[in-house]
Write a structure and sequence with these properties.
Elements lengths: L7 E8 L2 H11 L3 E8 L2 E10 L8 E6 L12 E10 L3 H10 L8 E3 L2 E7 L5 E7 L20 E9 L3 H10 L3 E6 L2 E5 L8 E6 L13 E8 L2 H13 L8 E2 L3 E7 L5 E9 L24 H7 L5
Parallel strand pairs: 1-4, 5-8, 9-12, 13-16
Antiparallel strand pairs: 1-13, 2-3, 3-4, 5-9, 6-7, 7-8, 10-11, 11-12, 14-15, 15-16
């Protein structure tokens, strides 16, 4: 596994009301609330993390909830669909659940031989549930979302682009992905480094109005590497390809570096280390406001500004 991109690490999006976001992802979708912290660059704003029991890479969806953020617009230059894997036969449960909770969803359809269900979260973020047989990941379950229907983690991310060539080259020449299927203007790439959270779909949309990242939009897509040494390997490789890459940044639960891929989407390469138990034990994940060391001295002011989540 050394010096390989190990699929998706996490996906970060922009929300509006923090409580509404929390309610949907924990109570309706049934994810575990993993971490309540702040945007390190804007500590007056939460950074909320959701995923499986341990915050395993490939399950982590995070949000910056800016209360008065205007809605975004899907289009080229954006990650436009975030896909989760669910058990075969579970889509009827999810469609009824979304309808009962006032969530916009389509009827199940089929793509690349798999049934899927498209829906929108309360801020308009587009998500999909794709039926997958024998996904080995252990789901987080709740009283209303059992293991027979619960999400297993990410299945894919869809990137919409005016021209896919530059993005495809990053995926294949740097990240080790291969083109595995195509239907009209949708191209599915996958890595064989692992079997889950390993798909990126590129949609070619030349001539369409460029997307606008704001409320209900994906902010960035993070790819997974094993450790710091592997991250440095990919940083050097990306620089050799002429891309502008940030130095490593400590995000408390992983180490990150960022770059804009040729289609304009913000990519991150994130490490497995040190993980979410670095400042909270497993049983208490998500139960405390956790601040990075640089903001700990301002805790009282930060807590007074942030809304209470219940």
């Amino acid at each position: 596994m050394d010096n390989k991109i190990l699929g998706l690490h996490h996906i970060t999006a922009i929300a509006g009301d923090a409580q509404r976001n929390f309610n949907f992802y924990t109570k309706v979708l049934g994810l575990r609330f993993l971490k309540k912290t702040v945007n390190f660059d804007d500590p007056g704003t939460y950074h909320l993390y959701y995923g499986d029991e341990r915050g395993s890479a490939g399950t982590i969806l995070t949000f910056f909830p800016w209360e008065h953020m205007t809605p975004g617009r899907r289009g080229p230059g954006q990650a436009t669909e975030t896909g989760y894997a669910v058990p075969v036969g579970s889509l009827d449960f999810w469609m009824k659940r979304f309808e009962a909770n006032g969530i916009t969803c389509n009827k199940p359809a089929e793509k690349f031989g798999q049934r899927y269900l498209t829906f929108l979260d309360p801020d308009g973020l587009k998500l999909e549930l794709t039926e997958v047989a024998d996904d080995p990941r252990t789901p987080w379950t709740t009283a209303e979302v059992s293991a027979e229907v619960a999400t297993r983690g990410f299945h894919h991310i869809t990137l919409t682009l005016s021209n896919i060539e530059g993005t495809a080259a990053v995926l294949t020449d740097v990240f080790g992905y291969k083109l595995v299927a195509q239907h009209v203007n949708r191209f599915r790439y996958a890595t064989d480094a692992l079997d889950t959270a390993n798909i990126v779909e590129l949609v070619a949309a030349p001539g369409e109005a460029h997307g606008h990242v704001a409320g209900g939009s994906v902010h960035h897509v993070a790819f997974r590497v094993k450790d710091d040494a592997s991250q440095l390997y990919f940083r050097n490789l990306l620089i050799k390809k002429g891309l502008q890459v940030t130095p490593q940044i400590d995000r408390q639960y992983f180490h990150a570096m960022y770059f804009r891929e040729p289609g304009g989407i913000l990519f991150e390469v994130a490490t497995d280390n040190p993980g979410f138990m670095v400042d909270e034990p497993l049983a208490e994940l998500g139960t405390h406001l956790m601040l990075p060391p640089q903001h700990e001295s301002k805790r009282a002011a930060i807590e007074a500004h942030l809304p209470v989540l219940a």
